[in-house]
């Protein structure tokens, strides 16, 4: 049973930065993904990183967000720069059938 725990969310002004972390425990993991869900909207793909370091991003965040990992994918990061109000959402870490509890990111002046 894999557990995923996100941290690092908070309130930030437009144009600011945040770094989210996801720590995996309870087993080895593979491709790790970040998703987000804003109120009243469907969950949206944000980014992924494979065990070989290949990354991919959703169109709305490409060029602003960077996903990285260490400790054999047991910790994954999402560096978010140039944040916009439309980035406000709960951000989730995902692997296979497992989801974290989410961390709230609010971008507002």
Molecular structure report:
- The protein is mainly beta and 109 residues long.
- The chain is 0% helix and 52% strand.
- The protein contains no helices and eleven strands.
- Strands 2, 4, 5, 6, 9, 10 and 11 form a seven-stranded mixed beta sheet that branches. A four-stranded antiparallel beta sheet has the order 1-3-8-7, with no helix packed on it.
- It is globular.
- It starts with a strand and ends with a strand.
- The model has no long low-confidence stretch (mean pLDDT 96).
Question: How is this fold's topology laid out?
Answer:
Blueprint: E1 3-7, E2 10-12, E3 18-25, E4 32-37, E5 44-49, E6 55-57, E7 65-70, E8 75-80, E9 89-95, E10 98-99, E11 103-107
Parallel strand pairs: 2-11
Antiparallel strand pairs: 1-3, 3-8, 4-5, 4-9, 5-6, 7-8, 9-10, 9-11
The proportion of residues forming helix, as a percent range, comes to under 10%
Kindly state the number of beta strands.
Answer: 11
**Spatial shape:** globular
Share of β-strand residues? over 45%
Kindly report how far apart the N and C termini lie. 40 Å
Profile the largest sheet.
7 strands, mixed
Low-confidence stretches: none
Q: What is the chain-wise order of helices and strands?
A: EEEEEEEEEEE
Arithmetic mean of pLDDT? 96
Tally of helical segments: 0
Structural class of the secondary structure composition?
Answer: mainly beta
Alpha-carbon Rg, integer: 13 Å
């Amino acid at each position: 049973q894999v557990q995923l725990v996100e941290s690092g969310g908070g309130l930030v002004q437009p144009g600011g930065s945040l770094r989210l972390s996801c720590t995996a425990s309870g087993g080895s993991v593979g491709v790790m993904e970040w998703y987000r869900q804003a109120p009243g909207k469907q969950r949206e793909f944000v980014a992924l990183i494979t065990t070989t370091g290949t990354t991919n991003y959703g169109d709305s965040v490409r060029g602003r967000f960077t996903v990285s990992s260490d400790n054999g994918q047991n910790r994954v990061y999402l560096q978010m720069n140039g944040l916009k109000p439309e980035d406000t959402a709960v951000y989730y870490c995902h692997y296979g059938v497992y989801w974290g509890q989410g961390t709230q990111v609010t971008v507002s002046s």
